Amino acid sequence: MRIIPSAVALALLASLPGSAVVARSQPIATATASAHQRLLPLQGGRNFRDLGGYATGDGRHVKWGLLYRSGSMHGLTAADYAELQRRGLRVVCDLRDTRERAAEPVDWPAQGAPRVLSDDYLLDTRDFLPAGAMKDWTAAAAQAAMTASYPKMLVQFRGQYRRMFAELLAGHAPLAFNCSAGKDRTGIAAALLLTALGVPRATVIDDYLLTNRYLDAAKLLASPAQADTPWAHLPPGVTAALAAADRRYIEAALAVLDRHPGGATGWLRDEMGLSAGDITRLRTAYLD
C-alpha cells in the first residue's frame, strides 16, 4: 500500500460500524448573539467555522453555536481552548488518519476538554489521484481525480459519518467535525448534515466553497503534516486544483444522493440510518 501524505486532496476516512439511534440525553443550549459569526475568532484555528444561520427550505435556520466544521486543530492556543470551552464544545469527530493525528496532535487541556472520536487508519489515495508520476500531473488531471474521489468518500467513510449523526441524535452538542484541511472529508460531512437539516442545495454548495476564502493553502502545505512531502513540490496549478474547494467536487458526491431511490432522503435513510423520525428530531434540535 502506498500511503500519500495529504491534507489538500485528502478525501477519505476509514469506516466504523454505524451506531444505533439513541434519544437525546439532555437539552441543547444555543450560543449567544456574540458567537454569531461564520469564522470563529481563534488565534490558531484552521478553517474553523460555525454552520449556524443557514436558512432551510421551510423557513427555519440552523442554530448558531452547535455545529462546527474545521481543519486540523493542532494550532489552537490556550486562548482558543478557553474560547471553545466557553462555547461548551462537547464532542470532536476527528476524521484524520493515524499519521495525520500523530504529526499534528491536539493538546486539549485536562479540564473541560471535549470527547474526541477518531479511527486508527492510514489514508491510501492511490485510486483518488492522477495516474502516472507526480511530476507529470496537470491541473486538469488533478481536478478530474478529485471529482472522481468524492463519491467514493461516501462509501469509504460511511461509518464515521454515521457516528457523527448518532452523536447529534444523542444530543451530544456543541459538536465539531474536522479533517486536516477542513475541505474534503469535512466538506462532505457538512454537506450531508446541512442536507439532513433541510438546507437548500445552493446553500450547501456555497458553504463548501467558503473554504476558498478561509483556508490558507500556503500555510497548510507548510504545516507539520505536509512539510517535506511531495505535496510541497507540486506545480502550482496542480497544488491549486488539489487545495481548491471546487463545486464540481462536492456536486459529484451530492449527485450520488440524487440518483439514489428516494433521492437525498432515501440515501440518508439507507446509508446513514436516518429514519423520518430521526430527521425530524435532528431538525427539532438544531433548527430555530
- What is the CATH class name? Alpha Beta
Predict the CATH topology.
Answer: Protein-Tyrosine Phosphatase, Chain A
Unreliable stretches = 1-35
Number of domains: 1
CATH superfamily: Protein tyrosine phosphatase superfamily
Overall helicity: 40-55%
Globally, the shape reads globular
What is the percentage of strand-forming residues? Answer: 5-15%
Question: Major β-sheet, in short?
Answer: 5 strands, mixed
Mean pLDDT across residues: 87
The side-by-side strand order for the widest beta sheet comes to 1-2-5-3-4
Q: Distance between termini?
A: 47 Å
Task: Give the C-alpha Rg.
Answer: 18 Å
Tell me the CATH architecture. Answer: Alpha-Beta Complex
Structural features:
Tyr/Ser_Pase_IphP-type; globular; mainly alpha; 288 residues
Describe the structure.
Belongs to the protein-tyrosine phosphatase family. This is Protein tyrosine phosphatase. The protein has 288 residues and is mainly α. It has one domain: Protein-Tyrosine Phosphatase, Chain A. Helices cover 41% and strands 6% of the residues. The chain contains twelve helices and five strands. A five-stranded mixed sheet has the order 1-2-5-3-4, with helices on one face. Helix 2 links the parallel strand 3 and strand 4. Helix 3 runs parallel beside helix 9 and helix 5 runs antiparallel to helix 6. The longest helix is centred in the middle third of the chain and has 18 residues. It is globular and about 50 Å long. The N terminus is likely disordered.
